[in-house]
Every structure is written in structure tokens, then in C-alpha cells.
Amino acid sequence: MFYHILLFGAHDVDNLGKTAQLRQLLFGLEKDLGISELGTVKQNILYAATLVAKPDAPIDTDDIRTHELVNGVPRSTFFKALKELVAAGFLQHSAGTQRASYMLTDKVK
């Protein structure tokens, strides 16, 4: 521990400790929601979809793709993960569309 204090400084260790506690809390919540096994890309897509969603309105694919949590994910990886989230029941195609917009399912609401 002393080595870490020298390396990061006491203030940074305190912040790192708080961040570690938040990460542990988040991990527990992800387990409770059943998303802990999804992997980072799918989790971040689901988080981004949740953050851009408006009540009872479809979520545009571009709004998810341009969110900072998903920024940098290759296009092919994004669409493969999106398809897997639909197959797993976390997202569904919006009525009347196939690819352009999605809705959160009751599984994540």
C-alpha cells in the first residue's frame, strides 16, 4: 500500500479507492440486471440506448452509435452486438421498422 501512495499520492489513492467501490457497486447492479455477462461493448450499447431513450419513443440507431460510451466501436462490432442484444431480449425493433430504430424491452426497464 505504501508503494501505491508513493506512486499515486495519497489523494489519488483515496479517489481510486472510491472509484473501486463504485465499480464494485456497479458490478453488483449489473449482476442483478442480468447484464454482467454481456461484455463491455454490449453493456455500453445498452447503457447508451438507455441514456438516449425517451419514454415510449423509438431509439434511433445513430443516436446510440454517436453516444460517447460507444464512440470508437467499429461499425461491424456495433451492429453485431446490437443484433445480439435484440436476440437476448434487451432491445427490440421498433414497430414498423427493421433496423433504424429500437425500443428497450421490459427486461431492462
Q: Please, could you describe this protein's structure?
A:
Mean pLDDT is 87; it is low at 1-6. By secondary structure, the protein is mostly helical. Helices cover 57% and strands 8% of the residues. The chain has helices spanning 2-8, 10-33, 40-52, 61-65, 75-87, and strands spanning 59-60, 91-93, 101-104. The termini are far apart. A hairpin with a 7-residue loop joins strand 2 and strand 3 (101-104).
Features:
8% strand; 3-stranded antiparallel beta sheet; 109 residues; single chain; mainly alpha
Kindly name the structural category. Answer: mainly alpha
- C-alpha-based Rg, rounded: 17 Å
Q: Work out the oligomeric state of the chains in this entry.
A: single chain
Q: Name the poorly predicted regions.
A: 1-6
Beta-strand content estimate: 5-15%
Termini distance?
41 Å
Strand order of the largest sheet: 1-3-2
Average pLDDT confidence is 87
| Count of helical regions | 5
